[in-house]
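User: My collaborator and I are trying to settle a disagreement about how two of our proteins should look. Neither of us wants to argue from intuition anymore, so we agreed to look at predicted structures for both before our next call. Could you fold the first one, then the second, and keep them clearly separated?

Assistant: That sounds like a sensible way to settle it. I'll keep them separate. The first protein:
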Amino acid sequence: MKKITTHVLTLLVMVSVCTSPALAASLPAADNTAKTEPAPAAVTSAVDEFRNLSKHERKTRIKEVKKVLKDYKADKRAGRAAETDQVLLAILAILLPPLAVYLKEEEVNTKFWISLILTLLFWIPGVIFALLVVFDVI
């Protein structure tokens, strides 16, 4: 989930850096741009415009995108990014605790198995354990 979000964010940053204001104005406005995909025509035109740039301008824009991505990853590690992910994981921890633990940990590890066993035996302890994992208490 984090990888997908990072890839979508990278694509959106590339498109926003590479597109002209007229093209950006023609895109539909959305409050949650990290979860929407740009139109295929917009991506194609942005890539074409990027290819038409001089070599120096391309390098400059790529450096800008790398800097933004680096800042995003640093914020993510520090816990300052994507509060919506935390809220969705909390809701999922109540409904399906093992899935929330898996999405938070991004692998099947001991926390996942503990959550699964607690959920199968007694649902409430599974929910409590999943909430503790989602909020990084454990």
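The second protein, kept apart from the first:
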Amino acid sequence: MRSTRRENGLPLQRIRRRRGADTGIYEARTRDILVRVAPVYLPEESSPEDGLYLWSYTVEIENHGAETVHLVARRWAITDGLNRCNEVEGSGVVGEQPELKAREAFRYVSNCPLPTPSGAMRGSYQMMTEGGDVFDAEIPEFSLHLPGAARRYN
């Protein structure tokens, strides 16, 4: 897998799954697009006493197909620990609309503030092939739960 983007000038190293029941790595595959997400809680940038829990998440998008695709838009559903859902839509990701040729990958890092110590995110990327075919690539639902936080489910 060739990388199209690098962090800190270093080659893109795939997020690897670790053994164990709760690896903290989430994956979904739609057609030939694999989306992998790894969330991390940021205690140094959070303020629980003010109701702010900040999460960072790294996303890798891999094109395992033969056709070039563009990431055109994103759609997120962010649910907090009180089951309140916030929908977010926009063009591209982190100010880019990356092109992924066959066997290329794109990685980016973003963040999400929550008002509760637990929650979840899920969504999709609108992708377009060079031939003009548009489809939604699933972003796997991933957990945003502090160790020891009460988990709430729908």
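Some points you might bring to the call about the second protein. Residues 2-9+22-145 form a domain with the Immunoglobulin-like fold (CATH 2.60.40.1470). DSSP finds no helices and ten strands in the chain.
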